[in-house]
Design a protein that fits this description.
The complex is a heterodimer of chains A (180) and B (167). With 180 residues, chain A is α+β, with helices and mostly antiparallel strands. Chain A contains 3 helices and 6 strands; from the N terminus they run H-E-E-E-E-E-E-H-H. The N and C termini of chain B lie far apart (83 Å). The chains are: A alpha+beta (180), B alpha+beta (167). Strand 4 of chain A pairs antiparallel with strand 4 of chain B, so a sheet runs across the interface.
Chain lengths: 180, 167
């Protein structure tokens, strides 16, 4: 009897140790992802350093599911740049090109008009009624780099939540059952 | 150690790493290309020139745009977006940039072009400052890659002037 009890004890301590290691590993993965994201925010100076293109308004340059890397600094906005902006009353940021800029002499404030390359008309229809221009505070960043297709992962996850839960479940199961 | 999951993980990680390296190399190779574009824009006619009821000047132009942008295309170029903007300074604004025409060049074969057009977007000032105004016409381009960093630059053409009177 004593022999069995001894063994059981050692197995129990082994299991605690193993599950502790797994918990620490999981924590490391989560925190390093968070550090990477926050670090990118600091380096690029924008709240969302990476955006996924959701609409067809910039085709054929940017297609649905492409990824854009954003950057924001104190350089003034100029015509031709592709900016990501938020209009009041809409949650989803829009990626369009600047086609008109008016920069004030005294305050250096800018009035900006945007348009999607694939749209026929400029964006005044997207702005709230009566708003003619975007100002600096609407603009989250300008697009500097481009990576095709990768954004499909997030689009699929957002449109089919079942797949998202399946993936999270499978990953969780793997973390819990894996040894080493 | 040699389970199916372990091998699949190693394979996917390796494939993604190689893909990422190749994408960065493709983007970096764009830096070796030194483009030598040429452009010429002529204002053929002032179609009309008036003050809108809200007090802003508006002008309609006929333009002749010719350019050769074929030296911009590399193997990593998806398309080149090109536009012509009127740029000028007023008492109120340090810089006004108004896009007049734009186009998408899908391939090197189409990069040498010539177009005769009226302004595609309305040329409206903020205020009434356009009479007798000197302005620049700037040909901007934006190289959109298949993957990686985007490039942009411009050619400034000076010496354009709007008429003294509305017409």
């Amino acid at each position: 009897m004593g022999w069995i009890g001894e063994n059981l004890g050692s197995i129990r301590s082994l299991q605690t140790r193993q599950s502790l290691t797994q918990a620490v590993n999981l924590g490391l993965v989560v925190t390093s992802a968070l550090i990477l994201w926050k670090g990118l925010m600091c380096v690029t100076g924008t709240e969302s350093p990476v955006v996924v293109v959701l609409s067809e308004s910039m085709e054929p340059g940017f297609q649905r599911g492409d990824i854009l890397f954003l950057h924001m600094n104190q350089d003034p906005i100029r015509a031709g740049e592709i900016v990501v902006f938020n209009v009041d009353g809409k949650d989803i940021p829009i990626v369009h090109r600047v086609i008109e800029v008016h920069e004030r002499q005294d305050t250096r404030e800018v009035d900006v008009l945007t348009k999607g390359d694939n749209n026929l008309k400029d964006d005044r229809l997207l702005y709230p009624y009566g708003q003619l221009w975007l100002q600096k505070h609407h603009i989250m960043g300008r697009a500097v780099g481009f990576l095709p297709y990768v954004g499909w992962v997030t689009i699929i996850m957002n449109e089919k939540p079942v797949i998202k839960y399946l993936i999270i479940g499978a990953l969780g199961l793997m973390v819990m059952t894996s040894k080493e | 150690m040699h389970s199916f999951g372990y091998r699949a993980n190693a394979l996917v990680t390796f494939a993604v790493t190689i893909l990422a390296v190749m994408c960065s190399l493709a983007s970096l190779s764009d830096n070796f290309n030194v483009p030598t574009p040429t452009a010429d824009v002529k204002v053929l006619n002032i179609n009309w020139f008036q003050k809108q009821p809200n007090g802003n000047d508006e002008v309609s132009l006929t333009l002749n745009i010719s350019a050769d942008l074929s030296s911009m295309f590399t193997w990593n170029t998806k398309q080149v977006f090109v536009f012509v903007a009127a740029e000028y300074e007023t008492a109120q604004n340090a810089l006004n940039q108004v896009s007049l025409w734009d186009g998408i060049i899908p391939s090197k074969e189409h990069a040498k072009f010539w177009i005769h057009t009226t302004n595609k977007y309305r040329f409206i000032d903020q205020g009434s400052n356009l009479r007798g105004k000197d302005f620049n016409l700037t040909l901007h381009w934006h190289v959109m890659p298949k993957t990686g960093k985007m490039f942009a630059d411009k050619i400034v053409m000076t010496g354009y002037r709007l008429p003294e009177e509305y017409r």
